[in-house]
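Retro notes, item 3 of 5
We never archived the inputs for the oxa(dethia)-CoA complex last cycle. Fixing that now. Sequence and ligand:
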Amino acid sequence: MNKIGILGVGSYLPEKKVTNFDLAKILDTSDEWIRARTGIKERRFASPDQAASDLAANAAERAIKDAGISQEDIDLIIVGTNSPDTLYPATACLVQDKIGAKNAAAFDLQAGCTGWVYASIVGAQFIKTGMYKHVLVIGVEAITKMVDEKDRDTYVLFGDGAGATILGNVDKGGLLSSVLCADGSLAEHLILPAGGSRLPLSQEVLDKRLQYTRMNGREVFKFAVREITKVSLNAIKEAGLTVDDIRWFIPHQANLRIIEAGIKRIRIPKERVAITIDKYGNSSAATVPIALDEIYKADKIKTGDKLLMVSFGAGMTSGAFIVEWSK
Ligand code: UT7
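Structure as it came back at the time:
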């Protein structure tokens, strides 16, 4: 039986911490509002010379070390990101070069904040078919460079970081179920309007600040609570499990209120939920693997534990998968 599991985990957070108080100095906002509405206390900002591939390469090196394999053993790199170094080439190719994974194919996968969840499920298919043995899956964002420091609706929410996993064959456990969804009719609710082929950069675009993220927060909130519940319950059902079988629920960290509304509907107790939003904010496609690494490094995951990882985001997309821990 071809079982696919997580062989290694790693993450990287840039050093610079930005507190709510720091933001209140430049925007019409307050620590009280941000904490009450989002659960965020501080977040990390990449430095001016750090792009997504730099953060990703650091996380990747750690995951490779944790898996006990070498760079040359990597067959494929998939990077889920909304803040690639450049529109092309793929950030995955830049990571391949930076870490010296010279035998690896590499591509990026764009699925909003669900990017790492999508990439994990896509990566697993290559192992399932026998085409590849080791797939490096990275969720990374230097997204604070793509939000408008004049827009309090979005600027207070986001942070930077990277999380990485190595997928490969395992003897026991591994991937038990996976669910991917998309609804492109909702695309406009979370969008970076300019810089692509629809609206190339121009002086007018810059004057209107369309090179930055635009979000209809209330619509995204409603979508998030609905989807987090739906895809989680579907993943549990597909795995033939019940909610009580889930040891760790590792959700996308966009807003503590979304997580709380979701776990109430799914009926998962809060002590089984990984929460990092207070420290790192919303690092988009990177939140789930960073949270996974955090509980893993804190020795909170035991062999046989069932982990439910779930995300939602631009597209709009959503997705979830369950892994039985086999390390
Ligand atoms: O990972 C990608 C997915 N993204 C998300 O999941 C985000 C989903 N949405 C949200 O998390 C929430 O909608 C927000 C945190 C973005 C906003 O929270 P909300 O409770 O939906 O607030 P709101 O947009 O309804 O705004 C309430 C008030 C407004 O003022 P009025 O109209 O009531 O006078 C806003 O102008 O809060 C105001 N406001 C702020 N005040 C202080 C909005 N942003 C800020 C701010 N500081 N940063």
